[in-house]
Write the structure tokens for this entry.
Amino acid sequence: MRAVGECRTGEFAHHYDYIIVGAGAAGCVLANRLSECGRFHVALIEAGGSDRHPLIHIPAGVAGLIGHRQLDWRYATVPQVGAANRRISLPRGRVLGGCTSTNGMVYFRGHPQDYDEWAAMGCTGWSYAEVLPYFIRSEDNIVFDGPSHGSGGPMRVSSYHRANELAQRFVDAGAAMGHAVIDDFNSSDPAGFGLRQATIRDGMRESAATAFLRPARGKPNLSIITGALVDRIILKDRKAIGARILRKGNAEHLAANREVIVSAGSYGSPAILQRSGIGDGGRLQALGVSVSHNLPAVGRNLQDHLVAPVQVTTRSSLPYVVDWGALPRLVKNAAEYALFRRGPLASNIFEATGFINTSETGQRPDVQLIFMPTHRGPSPLPRQRGYGIMVALLRPRSNGEVHIASADPEDPPLIDPAFLSDPGDFEPLLKGVEFARNLLGAPSFQALDSTELLPGSNVRDRAALEDFVREHCVTVHHPVGTCRMGPDSASVTDPSLQVRAVEGLRVVDASVMPSIIGGNTAAPVIMIAEKASDLILKKSPLPAAHLSSAPIQGE
Ligand SMILES: Cc1cc2nc3c(=O)[nH]c(=O)nc-3n(C[C@H](O)[C@H](O)[C@H](O)COP(=O)(O)OP(=O)(O)OC[C@H]3O[C@@H](n4cnc5c(N)ncnc54)[C@H](O)[C@@H]3O)c2cc1C
């Protein structure tokens, strides 16, 4: 890591060609690709520290990372009126790799039609056929090949060596209810049940940092600056010329000769733009921030995947549990992992999933069932024997916002996803919960001597179910949309991800998605950054894929 010099007022401590703000999913990809040719000096600035912590690298350590004091921003929503006035916790990785160093490692790209919808909204260049080559470029899939997959790319994608037996029972239950069994969720319509893939390399987490940053480290033209909180972008005559960072109690100014690229995630990126005076002018003035560009869309259009839990307790020994009875198995698992990097510790636990459509008319799945072969309670370690399903709303209509609370970069932003503010969100969620309850009662689970814990036998009618969802819903951590790209002048970024009416400034991360995709968001963000790197370097886009079947028609 290159040291950053001290800065006297108005002076730049260092000059770079590109400054990338945030070393998360997008930032690590950009650091690799922009430094690749060796011609440009790139600075990657990250508020968190190194990714050396062992819990990051052991896949089953994922539960211990959520809310971690050093590795997580530990945000929470403002009280959610639609969710019984609760403040719902919002973990976010604050470390090299960002959330990809703390996330569930599930590799899923969403539905092809999600991207065709972006193109139909006017985001030229972002249809599925046009983004597929960027998914492929980033990928090193050691299981699937064919026209939808890449091998030899930076990001290892693998299947589980030995999934929990309950995961297979979940897939069997879905099949018994007439749903398709899916081998590869990323090559066709994902509607159905199956075991999924994860970004795990030889039994260790593959984060954006291990895949993209590690190979680029040590290059003389890449400076990785950790422990540096970006306060704001330095603007001159509506042109981004650098960034103001806070490090070890000092403020430093870094210059960018070409561009500043903000990749601080769906909460961090709008907050940085707002502190830089780009946002809703009235709100910024009220906080004492001088307005550089009145762009009210900054921070709006926040969308996230809400989940409601269905859980059972069981006497079966199949679930993952940490208690005295499981001690011999835990010792065996630890030994297997230490010797061979295999077994349950080499898994992210969330091995099976199902995508269903609860509406009569829609063609894309609107609910995802995330199977958990373990009990999920307040403690990170499962102390009780149980298993369950998290029912995720894939296409929420509720739409919220993120705003800075003050001009102080140390102050957490006010995050209001407005969960369940649109009553239309209840229908698919409630149908999904009923579906999950039935599924857990299917023959493949019947011998397991289970009792429903959540929602619980007393929760039966619609009103009780609605109350249950309000009281128990949480998020699966996929916030997007707060620096929405679009063709219209009201959007934050244009389809080449440049901030409107500001020169030399782009946003590249989950916040640019115009609408949430129907699945996990890490692979899509990596795709966005791959494509953005070509846009920034003014390279011709990769040729669009020839899709063997016609794209799935709109709803
Ligand atoms: C607990 C959890 C589980 C998840 N599970 C999955 C999963 O299994 N599969 C999946 O596909 N997706 C998953 N996700 C979502 C996925 O990881 C994110 O969508 C993705 O990482 C977002 O990428 P990003 O580049 O937009 O932001 P991030 O990866 O969050 O990166 C932003 C980076 O910017 C830094 N930063 C922010 N503000 C500043 C500042 N002011 N100064 C300097 N640095 C700053 C942050 O510290 C962070 O490193 C999960 C997320 C979480 C939190």
